Amino acid sequence: MPAAAKPKAKPPARGASKKGAARKRAAPAASLAGALAEAAWAEADLALAEALAYLDEAQGAGDQAAYADVLELVAQSLSRAARKRGLARLGKLGAREAYDANLHDLNGAGSRPPKTVRVEARGVARGGDVLVKTRVGRLGAPKRP
Questions:
Q1: What is the pTM of this model?
Q2: How many Cβ atoms are within 10 Å of 17's Cβ, its own excluded?
Q3: Quick one: DSSP state of residue 135?
Q4: CB environment 47-80: b (16+ within 10 A), e (fewer)
Q5: 1.10.530.10, 3.90.550.10, 2.30.22.10, 2.60.40.3080: which CATH number matches 86-139?
Q6: Which one-letter DSSP state was computed for residue 115?
């Protein structure tokens, strides 16, 4: 008996691209990036959960020292979550900075923005995008003793 002939593979339709090999090579990189992103989000979620639990402790703290200790734990947990999500703090409390309307939210009224301001609350950014502007106030006249 003669050997059976192998069926011929159909040629790809016109305009159809060959995706198989390239897609198979790209899949592990994409899945690795996805796994790393998922791990970072999971760690950030854990830090936020810890902060919420510490917040409950702070609200129930009986004395001022215990409240201050728990508040520090809340701050650490929130900072860790922010780092995992790629957030950075802008400015330093009490620092003097040149006023920039793109970075600062000026507290108080006035006819003209000042040249120099004092940081009252820090801002938040991710990459080059400012998510929350730094809250600043005008510099007061120097206090005399």
A1: 0.58
A2: 7
A3: E
A4: bbebbeebbeebeeeeeeeeeeebeebbeebbeb
A5: 2.30.22.10
A6: S
**For the segment 24-65, what is each residue's pLDDT rounded down to a tens digit?**
555 565 688 788 777 777 887 777 777 777 777 777 777 888
CA atoms of 50 and 70, how far apart (whole Å):
11
Structure tokens at 69: 């200790």
> Given CA atoms 57, 61, 120, 109 in this order, what sign does their dihedral have?
positive
- CB–CB of 132/99 below 8 Å? no
Can you tell me the distance from the alpha carbon of 41 to that of 79, in angstroms, rounded to the nearest whole number? 14
Please count the residues of the chain.
Answer: 145
